[in-house]
Amino acid sequence: MHGRVKVKTTEQQEKERKIERTAKLKAYRQAMSTILSRRDEGHKDATQLKATAQVLQSNPDITTLWNIRKEVLLDIFKSDESASEKDTILAKELELTQSCLMVNPKSYGAWYHRTWSLQQMVNPNWNKELALCDRYLKLDERNFHCWDYRKWVASQAKVSCQNELEFTMEKIGENFSNYSAWHYRSKLLPILYPGHSAQTIQEDKVHSELDLVQNAAFTDPEDSSAWFYHTWLLGKEEERVKIVFCALQSDTLTLSLTKPVQNSQIVLKLHGEAKESIWTGVDDRFDSLWVTRISRPSEGKIQVSLEDQEVTLSLEKDKEESLVKGDGWKSLTNRFVNPPNQKTKEVLKQALENCSQLLELEPDSKWTLYTKALILLALESQTNHQEVLSCLEKLKMLDTARANYYSDVKNRLESEYLIEREEWTLLGEKYSESNVAYHRQYILPAAFRNAL
């Protein structure tokens, strides 16, 4: 009918799209063929830069083309360009990457090429790069490519960790569901508020961060970003390598350690003299349980040392077995998760109460229940053991996709519970020595179990 716009049918539209895709594919293949042929011929010139730029602006994820550009640019720089000329050339690379990032803000190749270009510049403008990060994070505050790039730019621009921490708070305030902001915060806090060991923070700061993250978690209990950060805050300090025990049975010497080490780090002495020994483990490179054979003297002392630790076995005549405990020995007074001090305990009790209240409203919130289990564990692993296991059993029903993970955690916690209580008989009934998934280095050889 006259005066009415003709509407294309779906079939017509699909036909036109197919023709357009075919034309684009043909042009792409032709361009790539030309670029690669010229590369094989050794051409490193402006024509190659122009050709690669045209393709990258349509598809910035072709790593080969970014590498070809690097080859061309490095060849150009061999001609002793002045600093200003070099920066002018590289500024065009920055313009290209920015154009490509408008096509795909999460292009690995574009972000990496931008980083490389700035590294080649004599006088890069870091403030401009920080501003660019701000713009891209306003478009997508969870773009982890941009967050990683910002960390690097901030380090080059000498931005203080305190300013960056405030920036993460600004982004979290805009959107609690920001994994990257929470993660960046977990990297900055150990620098600004270092704890007793690596990647830990001061106790008072942990308390204030717990208050912050619980507000975020209560805003949206099903959002995992804040809960992940909460889990990090509750994480225990990483235990350094310690000797658990050293046991001698006839001519077999067993050394148990809290963490895997290389056998070359172990020093064995008989009567005060160093002896060469061949230590074997399940993994001959790194292991936490090492065994060696020695020519056993009838009396005297055997010393085994590792770094700044040493244990001594005193040999007695007519006694086949001998055992000595190290600082890594686990018991009710030295646990896998030791109870916190009173101040931290009060903070955790409040966090536990908050989780319990939220579970009354959202009984099927897996993140809240999992966090409750972690808090119970941090408060008193022995007293709360059964309640923690009950939480894990419920999580297996609520989160069936991760049921095996919760079974794995339960297995580990049951092992730790029995090891701390030195319940060797029960531990032996539950797991055979060859089937212990966790903490096999803490399982005493059978000959010593009744003696302790």
Structure characterization notes:
With 452 residues, the chain is an alpha+beta fold. It has 17 helices and eight strands. It has a four-stranded antiparallel sheet, with no helix packed on it. A four-stranded antiparallel sheet has the order 4-3-6-7, with no helix packed on it. A hairpin with a 2-residue loop joins strand 6 (300-306) and strand 7. The mean pLDDT is 88.
Rounded mean pLDDT score: 88
Q: N- to C-terminal separation?
A: 99 Å
* Sequence stretches where pLDDT stays below 50 over 5 or more residues: none
The helix tally amounts to 17
Strand order of the largest sheet: 5-2-1-8
Strand content: 5-15%
Helix percent band: 55-70%
Largest sheet: 4 strands, antiparallel
- Give helix and strand order, one letter per element, not per position: HHHHHHHHHHHEEEEEEEEHHHHHH
Radius of gyration: 31 Å
Number of strands: 8
Helix-and-strand structural type = alpha+beta
Described by the principal axes of the CA atoms, the overall outline is: extended
Blueprint (SSEs and pairs):
Elements lengths: L9 H31 L5 H11 L6 H15 L5 H21 L4 H13 L5 H14 L4 H13 L4 H14 L4 H14 L10 H17 L4 H11 L8 E7 L2 E11 L3 E5 L2 E3 L10 E8 L6 E7 L2 E7 L5 E5 L16 H20 L4 H14 L5 H14 L4 H18 L3 H7 L15 H4 L3
Antiparallel strand pairs: 1-2, 1-8, 2-5, 3-4, 3-6, 6-7
